[in-house]
Amino acid sequence: MTRTVDEILAEVVRRLEWAQIEVKKAKEAGTKIVGLYCGYIPFELVRAAGAVPVSLCGSDQAAIPAAEVELPRNFCPLIKSSYGLAITDTCPFFHFADALIGETTCDGKKKVFELLRSLKPVHVMQLPFDTQVPDAYEHWRGELERVGGFLSEVTGVPVTRERLAAEIRIENDIRRLLQRIDRTFERDDPALTWTQMLNVRSLTDFVVDRAPYLKLLEELAEAVEASADGSASSASHGCQPRILVTGTPMSPETNKVMRLAEESGARVVAHDACSGSKSYERLVDEEGDPLDALVRFTLGIPCACMSPNEGRLDLLRRTVATYRVQGVIDTVWMACHTFNVESVLVQRVCRQELGIPCLKIETDYSDADEGQLRTRVDAFVEQMC
Ligand code: SF4
Ligand code: SF4
Fold first, then answer.
1. Which of 101, 321, 323, 337 is most buried by its number of CB atoms within 10 A?
2. Is the peptide bond between 308 and the residue preceding it cis, with omega within 30 degrees of 0?
3. How many H-runs (helices) and E-runs (strands) does the chain carry?
4. Between β-strands 99-103 and 33-36, what pairing exists: parallel, antiparallel or unpaired?
5. Is 282 helix (H, G, I), strand (E, B) or coil?
């Protein structure tokens, strides 16, 4: 029986709720669980070593006070939440993790990985910050080889070329299906909202068995492609400017800004952060050496921790053109210096080059500023009507 878009999306939410049970079952069956905090660590490598990767980026405001006992209060909420969940042992994914892979993307994270060493085995990858320097590629390839060795020690499974190539094909299949669903946001009136798409994309970070997830994505892709314009549950009447939400990653629990934009009547048609299209808009090369392909793919991630980071602005330009974006909301987590400073460039490109308005919002996980943010977002949306 053919299911509706809403029925499939309801299953996505159910699977997100069950994810911790699936991970627990995998752990009990002897599979190693590896916690990650960033897109620079390829799922393909973890899976090729026979482990299940799970994202440990915290999205729980309730875990922050425990973290603030040790960490500065004026600190990124994503890191505080991740650390609070770890030290209070209240995140099932952290609890089940046999090892953690960290990375030196930002100062806050790299120092917190030093603290996490007292709780779990931690391997930290040293990221080159300028991909144009002559040895960046060789350096990062060495880092991927080292983490492959670490993972094999944890699992007892060697990372072979064949295993890596097979995992790349599977993750690319997921990316292709997410691209198909994403493309429907080019329509005047897409069949789903971006808050719903955030759930779909987020599930990728927790799914143990890729086969049923691929099937679910395929079903959703077919359903949204077949649906008529105007079926999005957020659809309201009147002026609905097309908005890109960019900036720091968010989760279905921390999507305050995206939700406020949709509630204000805007249509969020793109989200080019790591929690959005940045993770699937490109594919890993399936030809040639699979490790080389992963080096090229990961070094091409345009994160604000890179300097310079022209790729972010190119992605912004392409996204605005493809989705006919009329306004950009740049979200920055409090005390995230890299995204905060890069916002100046984002705003310049929007206003001076693309001729569209851009609203920068710096916020945290609490709802204390929700009233004030709603007023700002409403005014921003209204100026486009
Ligand atoms: S925004 Fe940067 S640091 Fe955060 S997950 Fe993405 S690549 Fe990693
Ligand atoms: S949002 Fe910024 S400060 Fe927070 S973890 Fe990501 S890069 Fe680091």
1. 101
2. yes
3. 15, 8
4. parallel
5. coil
